[in-house]
Amino acid sequence: MIRTFRISCFACLMAMLLVASSLSAQEPLPYGAAVSLESAQRVAAAAAKEAQANKWPVAIAIVDSGGHLVLFHRLDNTQLGSVEVAIEKAKTSVLYRRPTKALEDRIAMGGADVKLLKLPGMPLEGGIPIVHEGKIIGGIGVSGVQSSQDAAVAQAGLKALAGAGK
């Protein structure tokens, strides 16, 4: 039984190392020019439309490629705590060059990835980089409902830029 436990622990460790190496093996996207105000407005409007269609009171933040706030929109009746969370989700997605869901998933695995909780930022789903021509030009963060719903609102916002330029 101890031998079986050791073998399964070894297999589990090898699987975790394989996942970790695949995450770090990817070249990070470079930063590009900052998202324009016009594009930020388009993203926020599409995100707000999605939230309103679902009757989700959310805060929507758009940051530039440096993580600085470009636009903020809070729907009526959104809890006040979501204001800072939305901004932090957007900023985190830019600073770490990945959707905040990736950080949330790594923390959920436990083990050494729990150390990510000590990093500055918001490792909860709902923050997504805005990418144009293979470069990060900003990020969107949404907060106010369940994290998966926040992410759905953010994705709806990003769809507004598909094919529309930056």
What does this structure look like?
- The chain is built from five helices and four strands; from the N terminus they run ααββααββα.
- The protein is α+β, with helices and mostly antiparallel strands and 166 residues long.
- It has a single domain, classed as Haem-degrading domain (Beta-Lactamase), CATH 3.30.450.150.
- A four-stranded antiparallel β-sheet has the order 2-1-4-3.
- It starts with a helix and ends in a 7-residue tail after the last helix.
- The N terminus is likely disordered.
Briefly, what is this?
The protein is of the alpha+beta class and 166 residues long. The chain has one domain: Haem-degrading domain (Beta-Lactamase), CATH 3.30.450.150. 47% of the residues lie in helices and 16% in strands.
Keywords:
alpha+beta, single chain, globular, Beta-Lactamase, 166 residues, four-stranded antiparallel beta sheet, 47% helix
CATH architecture: 2-Layer Sandwich
Major pleated sheet: 4 strands, antiparallel
- As a whole number of angstroms, the C-alpha radius of gyration is 18 Å
Spell out the CATH superfamily.
Haem-degrading domain
**Assembly of the depicted chains:** single chain
* Helix and strand composition category: alpha+beta
Given as residue ranges, the uncertain stretches (5+ residues, pLDDT < 50) are: 3-23
Kindly report the average pLDDT value: 86
Question: How do the strands of the widest beta sheet line up side by side?
Answer: 2-1-4-3
Q: What is the total number of structural domains?
A: 1
- CATH third-tier fold name: Beta-Lactamase
Shape: globular
Write the H/E string, N to C: HHEEHHEEH
The percent range for strand residues is 15-25%
In which range does the helix fraction lie?
A: 40-55%
Number of helices: 5
Distance linking N and C termini? 59 Å
